[in-house]
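Input record (one chain):
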Amino acid sequence: MKKIGRLFFPLISLWLLLGSSTCYAFGADGHRIVVLIAQEHMSAKTKKAIDRIIDNDELSELSLWPDRIRYIPKWQQSKYWHYVSIDDGEQFTDFKRHSDGDVLSALEYFYAQLHNPELSKQQRREALSFFSHFVADIHQPLHVGRRADRGGNTIRVKWPDHPRGANLHQLWDSLILNTENKTPRQYSRHLNQTRTRQQEAGRQTDFLVWARESKALRHHIYDFPQTRYNRAIVSASYIERSKAIIEKRLLLAGLRLAECLDQIFDPEGRM
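The corresponding structure, as predicted from the sequence alone:
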C-alpha cells in the first residue's frame, strides 16, 4: 500500500473546492444511506470524535468525496481503490491484485491511518471519508467484480429513464434503489427497522469476509436472459429480488461501519 501512502497528503484548498460542488457522483444516495445507518448505531463518544474531525459537517456528504476526486489528475490512482477484480474460479487466497491497490488494500490502509495518532486533522478527515466510502463500495457485489465485464459495466440493460440504455453496474449502484422513491434519510430509517435480523452479522469487521459475501452474491446478479447484443433483459421479478439483496447489503454496510468506527474511536465501549 506504499502508493496509497504517497498520495495521502493534505489538500485543503481542493477539499474546499469540492466540498462546495453540487455535482454528485453516481450512486451517491447509497453512500449516504450507509453513513446515516451507521450514525444510528455508533456510540456517543465516537460521534463526538468524528464531529471534532469534520467540524460538525455531514459525514454522509463527506463520504461522497472519494468519488469526486478520482477524476482529478493528482488522485487518478484512487479510482482503483473502489473495487477489486476477481473471476469466478479464483479464490481470495491466491488471485492477481492490481498493482495500484484495490478496495481491500484501501480499507486496510485507511483503517490503520485512523488509528494513527500522528495524523493531522486534515489527514484524519480524508482517511475518514475514504474509509466510510469504501465500506459501502465493498458491500455492492459488483465492486467485487469479474474482469471480463468490468464489474457489469460492459453489460447493457434497458431502463425507462435512460433512452440510450444503462449498464448492469449502474442498475446495482442506484437505479434499482431509486425505484423506492425515498430520500436517503427515509431509506435509512426504513432499513433500520429490519436491523434485528442482521445484528450479529453487523459485528463482522473482517474486510475479506465482506468481499467473499459480495462475490458469492454474483450468481443472483447474472441470473437474467441476454440478447445477442449482450443486453440484459431485466424483469420486474429480477428488480424485486435484487432490491432485497441491495437493501440487506446497505444495512450490513451501515452496521459494520459503525462497528469499525467504534473500534477506532471508542474501543473500551465495545468491550
